[in-house]
Amino acid sequence: MTLRWMVAGVAAFGLAVLTLPAELTHTHAHTAETAGAVEGTMAPACDVDARPADFDFTLQDMNGDDVSFSELKGKVVLLNFWATWCGPCKIEMPWFVEFADQYEDQGLVVLGVSIDDTPDKIQEFAAEYDVDYPMLVGLERDDFMESYGPIWGVPMTFFIDRDGALCRTHAGIAAREEFEKDITDLL
Asked: Which residues of the chain, if any, have pLDDT below 70?
C-alpha cells in the first residue's frame, strides 16, 4: 500500500510540474532588462552570449528522407523536441503547423524531433494531428540531442536565428503568443 501512495505522489508531482504557469517553465533568452536595452531602443533578438547552433547534422525524417541542417543556414528555425506520449506537445503542435504555414515565405522553418519513437509511430502521430512540417527521428541520436541540449524533458523548443545562434529556449509548454513573438522578433 505504501508503494502505491509513493507512486501516486510522484505522479501528482509530475502533473503539477506540467501545469505550472508558462513563466515558471520556460526561459527566454532576452528581455529589455536582461539584454541591457536602453529606454527607447529595441532589445536585440539574441543575447550577446548566445551559443552557435550545430549545423553539422543530417537526420532522417519520418519518411526516410535526409534533412541536412547545413541547408538551414540563413533561415529562422523553430526546433521542437517532442514525444508522442507528451500531452503538452500535442497542445503546441497545431500552433507550430500554423506558424510553419504563416511564416514560411518570410524564412521560418519548423522542425519537430521525436526523441524516442520509430518512423512508423511518428507517421501515425503526424497523420492524427495533421502535422505537415518535417518530423525528424531523434531515436538513437543522442549526439544530436546533446549538441542542442541537454534535453531534460519535452517539449523543449529552441529558436535559431538567421546567423545560426541559439537565441531562445522554452523548456515545457509556453503560450502561443510567446512562440509567435519569438518568431516575429527573429524574422
From this structure: 1-44
Active site positions, annotated: 86, 89
| All structural domains of the chain | 26-186 (3.40.30.10)
Give tens-digit pLDDT for 18-50. 444 443 344 444 433 333 344 444 556 787 778
Nearest to 32, CA basis, from 20, 45, 23, 16:
45
pTM: 0.77
Query: Cβ distance 80 to 151 under 8 Å?
Result: no
Share in percent of the chain as helix, strand, coil (round to 5): 40, 20, 40
Q: What is the model's pLDDT at position 120?
A: 96
Task: Please name which of 62, 26, 67 lies closest in space to residue 156, comparing C-alpha atoms.
Answer: 26
